[in-house]
Amino acid sequence: MNISKRVVSAVFILIALYMLRADWLLYTTQCAHIGEDFWEYYTAAWLVRGNQSLDLYEAAGKDVDPAEEDPAPNSIFEQTAQAHGVLFTHPYDYPPTFADLLLPITLMRPNAALISWYLLNAAALVWAGLLLVRVPGTHLSAYAAPVIVFLCIFPATADCLIYAQIPIILLLLVIAGIDLYARGKTLGAASLFALAAAIKLTPFVVLIPLLAWRDWKTLRAMALWCLAILAALMAVNGWGSLDLYFLHEMPKVATKWIDPGNRSLDTLVEALWSRSTTGAPMPGSVFAGRFLSALVLCCAGWLSWIKRTETLEIAGRIETIAIFLLLSCCVAPLSWPHAYVLSAPALVIVGQRTWERRLPFPEAAVALLFLLSMSIVRLQTQGWLTAPLGITLAVMGLLRLRRERRSHLPGLSEGGSSCLRNQSSKRQSQRPQEFLTDLAPKDPRIAPRPRRMASTVAHFSSGM
Question: Can you tell me the distance from the alpha carbon of 233 to that of 259, in angstroms, rounded to the nearest whole number?
Fold first, then answer.
């Protein structure tokens, strides 16, 4: 092992130890919150089972942030929770799709349902790692053990397991969709992308690279699956719950309060604009944060745009989708640390390129700083560096992929242009006879035999 490999190995070991330290601090300081968010899913599933989907979003008619407001003591949501053995719960702030999918857990008692949920998450985490290393074009099959270890010790995973959140399930769905997309199974990939987006809206970000690649086949398949899911939601929950969520609940998310634990670009803009880490944001800061997030996504889509003369191999497409999943964590209005589980595929690819010394040093340094910011537990305001570092890492990755695909075009790279110029000057310097000889067929069976002018004239004279 040479010196550079030893240095990279030492850096990887130090990062792993630092992430383990962050996991230990999370488990010791947040142990009182274990399984806390699961109870809102459990209560929402009971409401759907009782045909009370309209009561999923009780804060829809109030001027409050649904992500920060606890349910009222006498609300139907709180009464349903207490009736089924749940003493405390947060309000449900996801689309009704997830509550519909969790109907089977209403057949269990609360503690048994929580244990089943943790077992499901552990299986999904390992399955996601095994799927990721076997995606065609990634060449990760030799890194199965390191990938699974990284997914287990990633601080976002620890935060997700403590609060019993859903990003691990989303990670499995999007990785399975990427695997099917890489294998050319468009319909199956579109179904998994659409299902993940129906559970939580952030996976809809995969539409941007598909539009940039003009992959109309996958886009049509996703549109059909989204319509099918929408029809199923209307049949189970009715239009009223969808209206409450999309028109009343979602527009108010992360607009009423600055939370230091929210590691999104919007929160950073609101804090800098208001010059405060807590309290209500300034009126213009919310719009500025949303506008800047949209601008970042537009810039990323422009960097992913493929000209008709360019080709992007499947490895580049997979890495681009992974980068957009990382961007979705950074620009979402509400992005707790556990939401960054979806950034794991991009970080795995960056780690692979770093180990194989195929990554520029500045990009590797930004990735290191991103992981360090994710491992900050006690000082939450320093965690606000996560979003700008993630956006920087994503933009650098997209620029690198753009250079790589354009370097394969012979007329765009500097070497290709000089080669063409040399060939052109060489052709022009040849004598006409040699140039015609070069253009003549090389096969002696079809090449015309040269004849002297005198013999040709004599032949015609004798005929006359």
Answer: 32
**Nearest CA among 354, 329, 350, 355 for reference residue 340:** 329
Mean pLDDT per segment of 10 residues, for the chain of length 464 residues?
80 93 89 88 93 79 64 81 85 90 93 95 96 92 94 94 94 97 95 95 95 94 96 91 85 74 87 79 85 95 87 90 96 91 96 91 94 76 81 96 78 39 44 44 46 45 46
With 0-12 / 13-18 / 19 or more C-beta atoms within 10 angstroms meaning exposed / middle / buried, residue 238 is: middle
Q: Are 259 and 267 in contact (CB under 8 A)?
A: yes
Alpha-carbon gap, residue 115 to 34, rounded angstroms: 11
Contact 130, 144 (CB under 8 A): yes
**This prediction's pTM:** 0.85
Three-class DSSP category at 255: coil
Gyration radius (Cα) of the chain, Å: 29
CB 99 within 8 Å of CB 44? yes
- Rounded to whole angstroms, the Cα distance separating 242 from 436 reads 75
C-alpha distances in Å from residue 383, one per residue of 35, 322, 334: 23, 22, 14
Q: Are 226 and 194 in contact, with CB atoms under 8 Å apart?
A: yes
How many CB atoms are located within 10 Å of the residue 190 CB?
A: 25
